Amino acid sequence: MNDTLSSFPKLVLLRQSVREYRPDPIPRKRMDRCLEAARLAPSANNGQPWEFVVAADQTVRKKLVKAARFGLLKENPFAAEAPVMVAVIETPGHRPTRWGGYLLGRNFPLMDLGMAVENFCLQAAAEGLGTCILGLFVAGEVRRALKLPLSRRPRLLITVGWPAVEEVRIKKRRLIGEMSRYIEGKGIINAS
Question: Rounded to an integer, what distance in angstroms lies between the CA atom of residue 51 and that of residue 133?
Answer without folding.
Answer: 15
